[in-house]
């Protein structure tokens, strides 16, 4: 399992990946893994009114990964949304991705379980 | 071709016994009466609705309503653009008349939601998100919480400014007999209500609602023959932002609001200074700030000052959400954008009763998802 970001020939980076770059429309023909990097918390919330199959409370954060070391990347960072491993989080905290097999109960919500993946990464404060 | 609105209606918003069929037909029938036209006159029928299949198991509702209202063989279509389905319906209805294809277009928006638990309704709405967002259990309220935190921290805005939006819109809703809540709230109540997605609390969020609203569109020429009281759709714009919310360049800018309002202003030959009243999509209090900034009424990071100064109150410099907004009037998804249109139409033709303000030019901004799709409509009073 990877936390895969996509990059087009113009160096635009996105997470998740898209067939064509949302910025310029060129194919995203390169990918790289964010899972072994750290990121900074941009913003966060404790969500208390959660849908069926989702932990309660569900602490979520948008984090930014520094990608200035990626060859040919024209973006300096790429953001990602994810659950946080703890309720104790602040803007500006450094976090690292931690793999989780099932982020929510696939059978409890409205979506057909087979229609998408349910594993992924939570943000764990470093 | 000039496009006019000649009639409007809405059902009581709230927790209703009626299902989608009855809600839509009630608003549709009342709109026909209000406009003074017969079912035979209707050439196009648009039904704005996000999820009647998911909520109720009823699909094909454009056909259902067309038959119930006796508007056969009019062209009919269901319009889904999530929470901005109503605004998208206004866009479709406007297009149908402006293009010369239809002389008389009825738009009815509606949603039946309250029979589901809050969790189930939240999940249906959250299913609009990207699979990589959905699997984390993200909800629209949690996007609002994260955006509100970023806004407050970045622009050093007081938490009280968000509560002021809730207090103002609840105050406005008292004068709207169709609103879900006709009840004032205090700052203390708003600030001490339970946390839903911190820093946002219960009173920062709109309720789950059943309801329907309708508008009748025709050509300006035909409007003049039918009535003295009509409004003109002088500008309209629609735009789409990223599906994945965190991919936006600036988390406090709703690109769809910026682009759609720019388009609407250009078409109308107007700007933010020309507005007399506006309905903004206050599904969450923070959205009122983001839209005031997106439509150019306030500079980025300053809209909270308007809330603190009372500039957006009914007696303020630019009254916002005289209807009570989604916050107090309620938010039956597909109906909300149409109901915004109903409010600005009533303001422009002088039928807003105790909510009436002096207005010749009005704007409605209807937001789908968390700014994913946006429709901005500008109406002007007929001369």
UniProtKB/TrEMBL annotation, chain A:
Signal peptide: none annotated. InterPro entries: NA-bd_OB-fold, Thioester_dehydratase-like. It comes from the Archaea. Residues 106-126 are annotated as: Disordered. This is Nucleic acid-binding protein.
TrEMBL record, chain B:
It holds the Pfam family Thiolase_C_1. CDD domains: SCP-x_thiolase. Residues 3-221 form the Thiolase N-terminal domain. It comes from the Archaea. Residues 237-380 form the Thiolase C-terminal domain. Keywords: Isoprene biosynthesis. The keyword Nucleus does not apply. PANTHER family: ACETYL-COA C-ACETYLTRANSFERASE, NON-SPECIFIC LIPID-TRANSFER PROTEIN-LIKE 2. This is Thiolase family protein. It comes from Haloarcula argentinensis. The lineage of its organism: Archaea, Methanobacteriati, Methanobacteriota, Stenosarchaea group, Halobacteria.
């Amino acid at each position: 399992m990877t936390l895969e970001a996509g990059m087009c020939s113009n160096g635009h980076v996105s997470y998740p990946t898209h067939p064509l770059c949302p910025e310029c429309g060129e194919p995203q023909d390169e990918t790289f893994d964010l899972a072994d990097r750290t990121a900074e918390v941009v913003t966060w919330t404790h969500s208390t009114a959660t849908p069926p199959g989702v932990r309660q409370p569900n602490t979520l954060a948008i984090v930014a990964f520094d990608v200035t070391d990626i060859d040919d990347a024209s973006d300096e960072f790429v953001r990602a949304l994810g659950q946080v491993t703890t309720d104790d989080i602040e803007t500006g905290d450094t976090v690292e991705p931690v793999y989780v097999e099932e982020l929510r109960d696939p059978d409890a919500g409205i979506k057909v379980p087979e229609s998408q993946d349910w594993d992924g990464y939570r943000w764990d404060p470093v | 071709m000039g496009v006019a609105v000649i009639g409007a209606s809405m059902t009581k918003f709230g927790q209703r016994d009626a299902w989608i069929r009855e809600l839509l037909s009630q608003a549709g029938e009342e709109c026909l009466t209000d406009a003074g036209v017969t079912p035979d006159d209707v050439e196009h029928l648009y039904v704005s609705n996000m999820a009647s299949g998911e909520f109720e198991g009823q699909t094909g509702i454009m056909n259902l309503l067309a038959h119930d209202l006796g508007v056969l063989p009019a062209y009919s279509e269901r319009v889904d653009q999530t929470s901005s389905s109503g605004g998208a319906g206004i866009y479709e209805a406007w297009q149908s008349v402006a293009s010369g294809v239809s002389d008389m277009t009825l738009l009815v928006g509606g949603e039946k939601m309250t029979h589901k638990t809050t969790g189930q309704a939240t999940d249906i709405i959250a299913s609009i998100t990207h699979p990589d967002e959905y699997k984390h259990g993200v909800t629209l309220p949690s996007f609002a919480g994260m955006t509100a935190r970023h806004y407050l921290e970045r622009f050093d805005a007081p938490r009280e400014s968000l509560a002021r939006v809730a207090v103002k819109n609840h105050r406005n809703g008292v004068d709207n007999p169709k609103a879900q809540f006709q009840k004032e709230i205090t700052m203390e109540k708003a600030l001490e209500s339970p946390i839903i997605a911190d820093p946002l609390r219960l009173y920062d969020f709109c309720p789950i609602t059943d309801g329907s609203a309708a508008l009748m569109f025709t050509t300006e020429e035909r409007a003049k023959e039918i009535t003295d009281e009509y409004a003109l759709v002088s500008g309209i714009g629609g735009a789409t932002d990223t599906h994945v919310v965190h991919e936006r360049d600036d988390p406090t800018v709703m690109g769809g609001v910026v682009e759609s309002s720019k388009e609407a202003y250009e078409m109308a030959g107007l700007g933010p200074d020309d507005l007399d009243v506006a309905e903004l999509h206050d599904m969450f209090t923070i959205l009122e700030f983001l839209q005031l900034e997106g439509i150019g009424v306030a500079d980025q990071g300053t809209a909270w000052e308007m809330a603190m100064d009372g500039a957006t109150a009914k007696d303020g410099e630019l009254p916002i959400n005289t209807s009570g907004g989604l916050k107090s009037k309620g938010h039956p998804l597909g109906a909300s954008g149409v109901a915004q249109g109903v409010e600005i139409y009533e303001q422009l033709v002088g039928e807003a009763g105790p909510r009436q303000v002096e207005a010749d030019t009005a704007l409605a901004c209807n937001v789908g998802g968390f700014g994913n799709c946006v429709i901005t409509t500008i109406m002007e009073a007929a001369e």
